[in-house]
Amino acid sequence: MTKAREIKKELQEAGWTFEEGGRHTLAISPDGKTKVPIPRHGGKDIPTGTLKSIRKQAGLR
């Protein structure tokens, strides 16, 4: 499984920026048109389905 910081690093390498919020980090696409929430839950792994959804919304896979 993957932690939030790992998917955040993957998005950052693709040019995404971030806004920190309460329990989620908001990933913003390079063109600013797409925003994807990334859960932060105390360093726990992101569930597989959530991870797939984040990657799909971000166009990574």
Description of the molecule:
The protein has 61 residues and is an alpha+beta fold. The chain has a single domain (2-52), classed as Hypothetical protein (Metal Transport, Frataxin, Chain A). The chain has helices at residues 4-13, 48-58; strands at residues 2-3, 17-20, 24-28, 35-39, 45-46. The protein has a 3-stranded antiparallel sheet with strand order 2-3-4. A two-stranded antiparallel ribbon has the order 1-5. Strand 2 and strand 3 form a beta hairpin. The longest helix is centred in the last third of the chain and has 11 residues, at 48-58. The radius of gyration is 11 Å and the shape is globular. The two termini are 16 Å apart. The model has no long low-confidence stretch (mean pLDDT 92).
